[in-house]
Structures are given as structure tokens and as C-alpha cells.
Task: inverse folding
């Protein structure tokens, strides 16, 4: 019984990042919109898990979640997939070149990832003739950067449970 | 320590081309696939359109199931707040009822006069037979996109560009028609531009959406007479939408004319789609 419970708990936490990715994509909550700011949850989720424990978040799933997000938000297929994969690529690169795991390292390296992903997002949206509120996107990027440590701590707890 | 160019190359290759543990695809392949998908979006061929419609229909149904818990919670909280505000709403409705009773006699006369004038200019009065009702499956009100997904599509002869009404009020147009679902671009969306006319001033303009903020009137003549409380209707210019469909009320703020919509877009459950697509004629 104890073994079964431990196994179930392990499985639950192992698929939790994937579940969060798809649940927020289907629900249209990949960008959490509060009154004064908004956070791109998908960027943080993908960046953290590809950087820290890529076994839990396959690139194929990230691609599919991006497609779901595109359909839910009514964007041309591939736009969110591309920006999420760019974030994943930057995270994979940082994983290869860094040795020490610290919040500060992750946080600082998140800045170029965010900038490149948003750049790709702008370009692909303008190529497909979609208007977008640039000020909102700037605000969103800033809030995503600021709130990264908070979600980093939350995901670290989950990762600790998975590794234990 | 100096970083050599070779090291950077190896790191990039390792990140983008190598498949990690439990990874079935390399990042590079998926990035290329995404770019391909974006470019394919510009091609409108029949098989591709069918494929897109199938994918979108499937995801909409999935999204409908996944969003059930959050919808239930939000409707429950709305139900509770409605009950707590019952007395206040009752008083407000009583006052509105009294005002409406006063207006009925005036509007009857105006309706008669209006139909006579329309006959005079030989304009077709829209028939209720051209209207089809639909349920709102999902409503996405985000700064990126303000749209609804409704549960009818090609199966009910819906086409792109048809006007969508909440009761008798104009709220948007159909933009993305699939087999069993359609996306409705709301007037509040950033990409929405609707030709309108303000009454009683009679000034023509374009109603432009701004995402989370209220839509505004643009391209008004320099010497316009639009004031607070003026009613905004579709003008029917360019022959896309029928003329005279009510949209909202003008609200002047810092020389910007905002439009307070007659319909609360967060509260719409059913919509009417006018099958008379003027743009396709």
C-alpha cells in the first residue's frame, strides 16, 4: 500500500508540468491576465522545466501545446509553438553551458530567452498581418521576468518531490 | 577563461540538434515544422482548409471540456453575487421599467415612421428568417484577442464576414468558419474596424476596437457634433453590414470618443448570426 501510494505520488508530480502546460493552453490561461499586469505562464513553465528537468517536458509536447494555444487565441498555427520552442532552445543552451544551479543564474539567463522569444513572436505576427498591442506585450514581458523567481520556487518544490 | 568559438558551436549543436533523454524530436526539426506551419497558413487550398478546420474543431471541443471546471466556478460566483444584489437590481429595474413605459409610446410612432421611410427609399427590411441562433462555446477576452467560439459553422451555412448580434445589438462578425464551430471577432478586438454612424449628429466614422479598453470612433470629420449619449449604429457603408443595427452609446473622454456597448460582452450566452452575407454578393 505504501509502495503504491509513493508510486502514485511520484507519477502525479512527474506529469504535473505537462498537465499544467496543456491545461493552461486549452483553458486559454497561458497568459495570466490580472488587472494591472499579466504573466506569460507558458514561458516560465517551459524555460524552467527544459532547463532543470527536460525529461518531464518533451519538445513534442511543447510544440503541441503551442498549437493548442494558437487555436484557442485565434492566431495562425505555429506562432506560439515557434516562440515556445525558441524559449526551450535557449533553456537547453543555458543547460549545456552552465554548471551551477542558482536562481540568479536562471533569472539572468531568462532575459535573453524572453527577448528572443518575443522578437520571434512579433516577427511572425507581423508577417501574418495580425495587429497586437505592443505596450501590453512589453508590460507582459516585464511582469513575466519579475515573477519568474516566485514560480521558480514553486517548481523547485515540485522538482524536489520528483527527485526524492 | 576565454570561450572559444568551437565551444559555442558545440553547445548550440548539443542544444538544438541532439535529442535528449526521453525526447522523440530534436528542437531544430520542430522549429522548422513551426515555421512551415506559419507559411502554410497563408495558402488557402481546399485540403489545407479542411485540415485546419478539423484541427480547430477538435481543439475547440477539447477546450470546451477542459474549461468546464473554471466555467462552473465562475458561474457559481456570479450566481451568488447576483443573489446578494437582488434588491438593488430590483429597484434599478423598477426605475428602468417606468422610464421604458414612458418611451414606448414614442418608439411605436418612430418605428412606424421608420418603416414608411425605408419603404420610400426601397431598402430591404431584414427578415428574421435569415437569422440563425448559436450558443457561445468559449469566450476569449484577452488583450491579445477578443472573440467568441460559437457552436455552428459550415453545417448551418455560416460564411466569413457575417454580422453577429446579441438580441438586436451588433457585437461582431464571423472570421474563422470551421465545420461545427466559428470564431466571432468582437467589436472590442484590436483587429475590428466597423463603419458606423452616430445619431442624431449623422456623422460617419469607423468603430475601432482596442482590446481590453472600450472601442473608439476614428476618422470622424474635424467638425463633428458627436456628444455624450449619442447612439452609434452600423452605417451599412461599403455594403458589408446591414445599416441601422444598434451598437452602443458615445462617451466623450479627453476628446476621444469611446463607445459604451449596449451588450455586455462578458455576459453573452446566445448570439444571432445574420445569414444574409452582404459582402459575398
Result:
Amino acid at each position: 500500500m505504501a509502495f503504491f501510494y509513493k508510486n502514485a505520488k511520484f507519477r502525479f508530480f512527474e506529469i504535473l508540468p505537462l498537465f499544467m502546460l496543456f491545461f493552461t493552453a486549452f483553458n486559454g490561461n497561458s497568459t495570466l491576465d490580472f488587472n494591472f499586469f499579466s504573466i506569460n505562464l507558458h514561458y516560465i513553465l517551459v524555460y524552467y522545466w527544459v532547463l532543470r528537468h527536460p525529461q518531464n517536458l518533451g519538445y513534442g509536447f511543447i510544440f503541441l501545446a503551442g498549437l493548442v494555444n494558437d487555436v484557442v487565441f485565434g492566431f495562425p498555427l505555429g506562432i506560439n509553438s515557434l516562440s515556445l520552442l525558441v524559449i526551450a532552445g535557449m533553456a537547453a543552451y543555458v543547460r549545456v553551458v552552465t554548471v551551477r544551479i542558482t536562481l540568479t543564474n536562471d533569472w539572468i539567463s531568462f532575459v535573453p530567452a524572453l527577448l528572443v522569444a518575443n522578437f520571434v513572436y512579433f516577427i511572425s505576427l507581423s508577417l501574418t498581418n495580425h495587429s497586437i498591442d505592443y505596450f501590453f506585450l512589453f508590460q507582459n514581458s516585464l511582469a513575466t521576468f519579475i515573477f519568474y523567481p516566485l514560480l521558480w520556487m514553486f517548481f523547485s518544490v515540485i522538482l524536489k518531490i520528483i527527485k526524492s | 577563461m576565454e570561450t572559444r568559438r568551437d565551444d559555442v558551436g558545440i553547445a548550440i549543436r548539443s542544444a538544438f540538434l541532439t535529442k535528449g533523454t526521453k525526447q522523440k524530436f530534436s528542437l531544430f526539426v520542430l522549429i522548422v515544422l513551426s515555421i512551415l506551419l506559419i507559411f502554410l497558413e497563408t495558402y488557402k487550398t481546399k485540403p489545407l482548409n479542411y485540415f485546419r478546420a478539423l484541427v480547430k474543431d477538435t481543439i475547440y471541443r477539447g477546450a470546451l471540456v477542459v474549461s468546464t471546471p473554471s466555467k462552473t466556478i465562475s458561474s457559481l460566483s456570479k450566481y451568488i453575487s447576483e443573489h446578494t444584489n437582488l434588491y438593488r437590481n430590483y429597484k434599478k429595474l423598477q426605475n428602468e421599467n417606468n422610464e421604458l413605459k414612458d418611451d414606448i409610446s414614442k418608439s411605436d410612432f418612430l418605428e412606424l415612421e421608420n418603416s414608411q421611410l425605408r419603404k420610400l427609399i426601397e431598402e430591404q427590411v431584414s427578415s428574421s428568417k435569415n437569422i440563425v441562433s448559436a450558443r457561445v462555446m468559449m469566450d476569449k477576452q484577452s488583450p491579445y484577442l477578443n472573440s467568441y467560439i460559437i457552436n455552428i459553422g459550415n453545417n448551418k451555412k455560416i460564411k466569413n464576414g457575417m454580422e453577429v448580434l446579441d438580441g438586436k445589438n451588433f457585437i461582431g462578425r464571423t472570421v474563422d468558419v470551421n465545420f461545427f464551430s466559428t470564431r466571432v471577432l468582437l467589436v472590442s478586438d484590436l483587429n475590428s474596424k466597423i463603419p458606423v454612424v452616430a445619431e442624431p449628429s449623422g456623422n460617419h466614422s469607423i468603430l475601432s476596437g482596442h482590446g481590453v479598453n472600450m472601442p473608439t470612433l476614428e476618422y470622424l470629420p474635424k467638425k463633428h457634433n458627436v456628444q455624450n449619449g449619442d447612439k452609434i449604429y452600423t452605417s451599412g457603408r461599403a455594403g458589408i453590414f446591414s445599416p441601422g443595427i444598434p451598437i452602443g452609446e458615445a462617451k466623450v473622454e479627453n476628446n476621444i470618443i469611446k463607445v459604451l456597448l449596449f451588450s455586455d460582452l462578458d455576459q453573452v450566452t446566445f448570439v444571432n448570426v445574420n445569414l444574409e452575407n452582404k459582402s459575398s454578393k
Observations:
- The radius of gyration of chain B is 25 Å.
